[in-house]
Amino acid sequence: CEDLLFSYKGILYPTTVCSPEVFKALECFEARREDVILAGYPKSGTNWAGQILTDLVTTAAENTEDETNSLNDEELEEFPYLEIGDTEKYQRMEKLSSRRVILTHLFPHNLPESIFKNKAKILVLVRNPKDVATSFYHFTNDMSPLPSYATWDDFFTAFMTGKMPWGSYFDYICEWSKHVDEENVMTITYEELKENRALGVKKIAEFFGLLLTEEELQAVTDRSGFQAMKENAQKTHGAFGNILFRKGSVSDWKNLFTEDQNQEMDKTFEECLAKTKLGAKIKYELYCK
Ligand code: A3P
């Protein structure tokens, strides 16, 4: 399984979708202040929040005459994950209109410096690690480009040690924690979006300064429901859509974790994250409910 991974600045990535050459090219990527960036560890609901952002940006653009705000066809065709593509991707992105919606699973230290230097706004999306592990296990076994694991126990060990595509969840949250108080950074949890999607959509629009009417915000909320996105998955994500929109629920981990694994994760969470800002948010909002 390790043949399918390579290391870049200390983090493992899948060779089938990322490459050292693309990462090298990415270092020169020029972020813009207007870029809309979504950062999340894999399986945190990135495609969900990504659709909300694209929909908000597109709708807001229709309300303004400023064409630099709109997403053109080429832009919508460009695969939205920053680190996935070919070495010419960043040249193509250079030519795109101003408001680019960019998704990424990268650790902050693997992002191009220009994102922080040019003060692009970043939405950091987090999800309960137990549900992330559960979702990742199903996904990685269904997706041929990613390593698969013979058993859930094997996957759990890899997840806890961080020897995984896109690295350790715990290190990821710990590193992003150092950025949560920056004025260009907003955090949102999968669980809060699940509990009150309309409020989440509104907060996201406000943070990025996207002007939409109440009706438009409601329409974005309606289009981002799990069922609506699942039904549209073939169109938006092709064959990959069936794998991606799996259950969309909270606490599915209870169907996979043994009591020992549950305790081991609680212990690791406590040791690695409880004292970090993002860890405290996850603990307060997700664990203690
Ligand atoms: P599950 O595997 O638990 O169902 P990512 O986009 O980061 O790969 O995350 C995928 C997870 O987000 C999957 O979780 C998927 O079902 C869930 N998801 C996708 N769209 C969603 C939506 N509209 N509402 C709730 N969850 C959604």
Automatic annotation (TrEMBL):
Coiled-coil parts of chain: none
Keywords on record: Transferase
E.C. no: 2.8.2.-
One Gene Ontology MF term: sulfotransferase activity
Residues annotated as domain Sulfotransferase: 34-276
Keyword Coiled coil attached: no
Tagged with keyword Transferase: yes
Family of the protein in this entry: Belongs to the sulfotransferase 1 family.
Name by which UniProt lists this protein: Sulfotransferase
Range within the parent protein: 67 to 355 of 356
